[in-house]
Specification:
The chain is mainly α and about 220 residues long. It is built from 15 helices and no strands. It is about 65% helix and about 0% strand.
């Protein structure tokens, strides 16, 4: 029996040391089968048997799965399966836990929720420190209704990025309010594209014409 916390710390240090063999890692998994911290550390070790790691994933909480996914040393297949486990468990979480997860989730996980219609979840994604411009562009270029996404984007720094502004200007779903705010960020080609597009709101056309006369 291993009851002391010191035993657990010693095992975790041994695993982190990197010199353990696959056989020893498997033995530790059996010996400490009911120690969650040790099992989590084991499946992140690149030498830990893949089949064992995949079996353990199903027992992990979303926060622990994020640690596994975030660790670049983890076997790539284990990380990918961890993403699937996370997405499946995420759907059953209460809203507060969903928001908490999305505020700290790594980029790989954010992409799984790019088309969610929930404005609160979209805001959590956009405010996540791991959210990048390519992720925002993929969200804008995804199929489906962008109404919730534009509610989440309104007033954020993302709209002031030239590449994001350019993609928004080409989206027929873009709200007039946002289009008007980003016109100064657009190049001439994008502004002229808005003028030519049949569905462009007259207030946007008028602002572009005014900018023409002022230039």
């Amino acid at each position: 029996m291993h009851e002391s916390g010191q035993d657990e710390l010693d095992v975790l240090r041994r695993i982190a040391g990197g010199s353990v063999t696959a056989e020893e890692l498997s033995r530790l998994s059996d010996e400490f089968a009911h120690r969650q911290r040790i099992q989590i550390a084991l499946i992140q070790h690149p030498r830990f048997p893949q089949r064992r790691a995949l079996n353990i994933l199903a027992s992990l909480f979303p926060a622990d799965l994020m640690r596994v996914i975030r660790n670049k040393r983890t076997n790539p297949l284990v990380r990918k399966r961890g993403e699937i486990e996370f997405v499946n468990k995420f759907q059953r979480l209460p809203l507060g836990e969903k928001l908490s997860c999305l505020k700290t989730a790594p980029a790989e996980l954010l992409l799984h929720f790019q088309t969610t219609p929930d404005v609160r979840l979209l805001k959590a994604i956009l405010n996540n420190p791991y959210c990048t411009e390519p992720i925002v562009l993929r969200m804008l270029q995804s199929r489906g209704d962008h109404q919730g996404l534009y509610q989440a984007l309104d007033g954020t720094a993302w709209c002031r990025r030239p590449a994001v502004a350019s993609v928004i200007s080409r989206d027929p779903q873009a709200p007039v309010k946002i289009l008007l705010s980003l016109l100064p960020l657009l190049n001439q080609e994008d502004r002229e594209g808005l003028l030519r597009r049949p569905g462009t709101h007259e207030s946007v056309r008028g602002r572009i014409r005014m900018m023409r006369t002022q230039s």
